[in-house]
């Protein structure tokens, strides 16, 4: 989604702004721009397409030691240069970049037009810069405050004023912003990735904070005019590591990092001595755990698929009634939330607007919600207050891979911890914990000797008209995840179904041109899923079967057999997901797709 960077200091701003924008490219965008201060006016350069187009358009001597930059993912108005940010006011003395959505922009625009303002774009954002200009009488923070008081919606904004060189005013409401301090220079970004290479000392703005940023640092105030200060946090080492190393794509690097990311997620959390698990971030004593009546697990996209596995584990291992739900549906259906219910909000980025909305809905209704989040300090982590970091390390590729397996692992640890209090004895708990701890090395071994049949599957699905992914129980969650990966990275039309649902309608789509990918680990549902395989094969489908190593029958019925290490049912997604990640990656490559920047997608979806 949209990204913001800002710089104020002694250096020329544009190289630093461009570097920051490149670091935000992974979030997904369709145009980019910068604005710097040039004596008594702002100078704005914007281009459609990648940051490299913008870089080529920026004059080598573009002046300015204060500047802001933006990558835009279009919401209001098409992908055009006029709609790209930053936007300037009519006098070209103020420039503003914005992430988020101004919901009452139409009313504000009409009022400004009545005042004689001529709009130059179709965006909701442009009203903001004209409002700031209207209220500007010499005090930039006051002008921003007065403008924002009229606005309904979400925003993270950065504003520069020709009359105030060496100053950026930033404000946040629902769209993240982080300010960083260097030596005689300050940085602003919507994502810590953009500034981690320059500084680790950062402050995350809270909703309704306004920051006055100069080269010496910042002062913060609230939208209501009161003063406020925020704790300076230190960004971890891993934030600066957003390179691809020797890998051709971030996605492949992140798939291959799963042995380490999973080990990091589990480290110190599974306690073999007691057969239980320790999750400090949840801070719940056994008495509280014993009283949980119901668990709800909320997320979007891949995080929802991990939530499905988490809910299944809560129910079957800890015997707590549990459900998983897509955040955007949950937040608007006026859900019943009981006093002893417990919720998890699952999100890699910690910034997904729908999941953040669901968190707030649980809180408004007096419920307890804990984050299962990767990005430290993100909005969901901070709004929940308590939770579990999954410790995947930075996930740059738009397609979520290592975060999925870490989310599943973190939810399994939580389920083990609850189960040890409610249902499991020490031996059963230890057996589950031991198996979980063995997963990272099984993942590593499988990735190192990736079966050649993955490439056969690539050939099949890239030639098919339409692909089905089938599985049952937690393998249905894996089927959903496999189909999502193939859609977003290879743009291959596909659909996932619980295997037994095929005969209730979708089987009508099967013919000899329909590849079917079936996830069938050796669990209680295996025989039933094998029957579905027979049904689709009888109608001409060619079948890729992801099955447990050593299951010769599953291998025999497959047209293409992909064995993965054996695991008990709840742990199987950590292994069966691997070939589907690689199937999507290698299919995307075979079809010449832009793997790390798939069309129309954004890494963190910060709008509804
Ligand atoms: C995953 O490959 C997708 N790009 C997407 O579905 C993602 O999982 C979803 O937008 C949720 O993101 P989050 O985990 O950051 O909340």
Descriptive account of the structure:
- There is one protein chain.
- With 608 residues, the chain is an alpha/beta fold.
- It is built from 19 helices and 27 strands.
- Strand 2 (31-38) and strand 3 (41-48) form a beta hairpin.
- The longest helix has 23 residues, at 426-448.
- It is globular.
- The relative contact order is 0.09.
- It binds 2-deoxy-2-amino glucitol-6-phosphate.
- 2-deoxy-2-amino glucitol-6-phosphate (AGP) is lined by residues 300-303, 347-349, 352, 355, 398-400, 488, 604-605.
- 2-deoxy-2-amino glucitol-6-phosphate (AGP) binds at residues 300-303, 347-349, 352, 355, 398-400, 488, 604-605.
Summarize the structure.
With 608 residues, this protein is an alpha/beta fold. The chain has 19 helices and 27 strands.
Number of strands: 27
What is the first-to-last residue Cα distance? 12 Å
Bound ions, cofactors and other small molecules, one mention each: 2-deoxy-2-amino glucitol-6-phosphate
Strand content: 15-25%
If helices are DSSP runs of H or I spanning 4 or more residues, what is the number of helices?
Answer: 19
Q: Order of strands across the biggest sheet?
A: 3-2-4-1-10-9-11-15
Rg calc: 25 Å
Average pLDDT taken over every residue? 93
- Characterize the biggest β-sheet: 8 strands, antiparallel
